[in-house]
Amino acid sequence: SEKHGGGPAVPEKAVRFSFTVMSVSVRADGEEEEVTIFTEPKPNSELSCKPLCLMFVDESDHETLTGVLWPLIAERNAMKDSRLILSVGGLPCSFRFHFRGTGYDEKMVREIEGLEASGSTYVCTLCDTTRAEASQNMVLHSITRSHEENLQRYEIWRTNPFSESADELRERVRGVSAKPFMETHPTLDALHCDIGNATEFYKIFQDEIGELYQKANPTREERRSWRAALDKQLRKKMKLKPVMRM
Ligand SMILES: [Zn+2]
């Protein structure tokens, strides 16, 4: 793209890595139950979401991203596995920290969980579906991918223990192609929200075209013709390729 001004070139993209204290719980000595004494009401507000690191880097630049974030991850892992013991007001208190990675966009999740980039056949960051499978079955997604499994799959990808071909190996690890370096908390991201909404509306429009409310049991042929009518309009008026909406 066009350059403005002089000086060294900097990436035109930036990544902000920030954290929010979501909740604080206390458990008294000898008690089973925790009592939550604080819950952040506005976790996305810039007042509560504190930047830890703001860097000029393209998130798809794996080397720079891991280079900059790795000290943060190492610190976080160390905090996860240890307890801080402090004397507060004369009482020894033990502190534990729980981390939850969330709020990353799809591209970032792919990058930090070691998945192939967005154009991948393995279209989803939450489950193992392929693009082709997803276009056939757009109904429900359940979350089946996990950070642990991505790590195991990376080991398989790296070592190829069954001496498979590149294609077979890729199929086995479902598009894991780099070492996952940060655990994300699997939640619905914008992509899945869009797929879900699109699917729902796609069904509703078909039923409306066929005036389903007047019919008890439409045949498959009827349903097919409603879908064809909708697809035709989507193609013609909205310039969409219906099967490619994924
Ligand atoms: Zn999925």
UniProtKB/TrEMBL annotation:
Coiled coil: none annotated. Residues 186-246 form the V(D)J recombination-activating protein 1 ZnH2 domain. Pfam families: RAG1_RNase_H, RAG1_ZnC2, RAG1_ZnH2. It comes from the Eukaryota. Residues 1-120 form the V(D)J recombination-activating protein 1 RNase H domain. Residues 122-184 form the V(D)J recombination-activating protein 1 ZnC2 domain. InterPro entries: RAG1, RAG1_RNase_H, RAG1_ZnC2, RAG1_ZnH2. GO terms for molecular function: double-stranded DNA endonuclease activity; histone binding; protein homodimerization activity; sequence-specific DNA binding; ubiquitin protein ligase activity; zinc ion binding. GO terms for cellular component: DNA recombinase complex; endodeoxyribonuclease complex; nucleus. GO terms for biological process: adaptive immune response; B cell differentiation; chromatin organization; T cell differentiation in thymus; V(D)J recombination. This is Recombination activating protein 1. It comes from Sphenanthias tosaensis. The lineage of its organism: Eukaryota, Metazoa, Chordata, Craniata, Vertebrata.
